[in-house]
């Protein structure tokens, strides 16, 4: 029995599983750490017990290295790292990729001389020049289209939407051209574009600036979606997204930009299709991503005090879902609670930790 | 039909004189200044002229310019070019008419937008540029694909959704692409290809190729906002993009005067120079594109408005006569048809006879019929093809149909 979890209907899976006997526990040998089998990337140490990895075959097919399995609070490094904020991690990732590959360029509003509205592209224009860090006028539809056109010829543009909500103006380009060109051209053209931007509820930014568009993009075939939540995976996902041949939409969260964490000095990439095991547990699986991860971890503390052992997975890859990790986890716990950001997103509610605790308790009864 | 060298041997008595005159007249008719003495066997069928001297042709109308100096009306050409224009345009015309019949026979389904009447634009543009210059267009792309080097077989196979189509049967009429000739398609959404085209021009500038991009759109798409957005960026960043408005005066069923307050599409760029061209004259198109390429490489974007006409309706589902009169269509066909124009030029320059041109057309008809027959034999794509090329590299994820039972596949 593997859970059929597909975009936007995690809640359905949860109700289907609630008939299982909550007392049934699975043997503890878990397989949550993928093998490190790539050439140049660092292996980050695990936070908790690392048993044998069943994921060797799977991860060997994929581009690069695996995620770190840690708790959100502790940092994971082998040796010295350096501490930085999430937006700086994104910037580092972007800069390293631009250094590495001359085809990478950035386009967006105020990314160049201004340094980026959230400082993600700060300093890049001075370093790489105006032709590689392009300040565009305010025309999302056109510059997204231009990025896609440039990608058809082999460039790797990183398109920044100042706010994810603004990318709705470019939805036609993203949906019809970006997602479908590889298919309708019979494989002739690849679109190695990265579309990124902050979204989500900020502090009183108003309705139009607080949208989460994941559910809209979920229905587009051909694009990959990832969401970052920590400086470590922000940098890793940014690098992996730029190197990917598929169009990738990288969702960031406005309120997470100032998160501080220590990340390794060495170069590393996070796997685009993989979920991150934040806290292994036994009783119940909580799927989350982006900002909700922190709410869930807070709730987890309360739950642990109450005697539950939740397993928290940061799904990170929104499309395609990492069914392997999620499936294994749900197989183990037979119960999962998707937080609203992992479920349907038509109406947003910011779930508080207390609500998560209540939901878990209800499910475990 | 006596070979013309014979007339020297004839006697001058009255009877022979008449025949001599007759023979002289015949030989004068048949001799060309560029044909020297021919062997008897070849005299049966005079071959088409292979003269290499350049021919200068005047365009039918002068160019109208906006913010630039129009190019001259005299276009350099050659015999070979004239004949190849005729041949390729006749091929395009035949191909579109054949597509019409195939659609009515339900072998082509969905949308089918035909280009007949507008061939001069495709042909003239190809004559002025190289395969490194990129072309991107909307859904009326069959002939442009052919001009870029596509084969008839690929066209028909794709139209009928077969494996050997240019997009492996997965694109259809509106999604023809040819990467090796820098033909970027083939787009269904009106106007969306213009920002893509400016992006390609950006990439050309970025990679320092000395090439330009022709982003083609219609008079209907000329009212799209993204066009002006893209034009603004192109002008700002000095991109080598050329926006070509194929003005066939109707945006599906809406005439241009009902859709645009200012139907002077070449002026719509405001600060961007523009040129209005007679789109039914292949040489005018060639001259304009040559001019535009030189301009774009030095000074940034330029708009070309091609004044052209389509004989068919917007697509095969549109009869094309509810919003315009049949007299109008036949009037344009009589006076401005691009193939007729080339035919007249060929005949007036004595490059071939009527019969030869007719033979050429017969050959073309046969070529098209052969390609259709071959394409009909081509198999449909495999069911597994449904899931290939969705991503560049698959992830072991699954994809399934609506009920999750019938169709299930692991993305490779």
UniProtKB/TrEMBL annotation, chain A:
SMART domains: Transket_pyr. InterPro entries: THDP-binding, Transketo_C/PFOR_II, Transketolase-like_Pyr-bd, Transketolase_C. The keyword Oxidoreductase applies. Residues 84-259 form the Transketolase-like pyrimidine-binding domain. Its EC number is 1.2.4.1. It is an enzyme of class 1 (oxidoreductase). It catalyses: N(6)-[(R)-lipoyl]-L-lysyl-[protein] + pyruvate + H(+) = N(6)-[(R)-S(8)-acetyldihydrolipoyl]-L-lysyl-[protein] + CO2. Keywords: Oxidoreductase, Pyruvate, Thiamine pyrophosphate. It holds the Pfam family Transketolase_C. One of its GO terms (molecular function) is pyruvate dehydrogenase (acetyl-transferring) activity. The keyword Cytoplasm does not apply. GO terms for biological process: pyruvate decarboxylation to acetyl-CoA. Its cofactor is thiamine diphosphate. The pyruvate dehydrogenase complex catalyzes the overall conversion of pyruvate to acetyl-CoA and CO(2). It contains multiple copies of three enzymatic components: pyruvate dehydrogenase (E1), dihydrolipoamide acetyltransferase (E2) and lipoamide dehydrogenase (E3). This is pyruvate dehydrogenase (acetyl-transferring). The lineage of its organism: Eukaryota, Viridiplantae, Streptophyta, Embryophyta, Tracheophyta.
From TrEMBL, chain B:
It catalyses: N(6)-[(R)-lipoyl]-L-lysyl-[protein] + pyruvate + H(+) = N(6)-[(R)-S(8)-acetyldihydrolipoyl]-L-lysyl-[protein] + CO2. Transmembrane segments: none annotated. SUPFAM superfamilies: Thiamin diphosphate-binding fold (THDP-binding) (SSF52518). Its cofactor is thiamine diphosphate. InterPro entries: DH_E1, PDH_E1_Alpha_Subunit, Pyrv_DH_E1_asu_subgrp-y, THDP-binding. Its EC number is 1.2.4.1. It is an enzyme of class 1 (oxidoreductase). CDD domains: TPP_E1_PDC_ADC_BCADC. The keyword ATP-binding does not apply. The keyword Oxidoreductase applies. Keywords: Oxidoreductase, Pyruvate, Thiamine pyrophosphate. Residues 88-383 form the Dehydrogenase E1 component domain. NCBIfam families: PDH_E1_alph_y. PANTHER family: PYRUVATE DEHYDROGENASE E1 COMPONENT SUBUNIT ALPHA, PYRUVATE DEHYDROGENASE E1 COMPONENT, ALPHA SUBUNIT BACTERIAL AND ORGANELLAR. The pyruvate dehydrogenase complex catalyzes the overall conversion of pyruvate to acetyl-CoA and CO(2). It contains multiple copies of three enzymatic components: pyruvate dehydrogenase (E1), dihydrolipoamide acetyltransferase (E2) and lipoamide dehydrogenase (E3). Tetramer of 2 alpha and 2 beta subunits. This is Pyruvate dehydrogenase E1 component subunit alpha. It comes from Brassica napus.
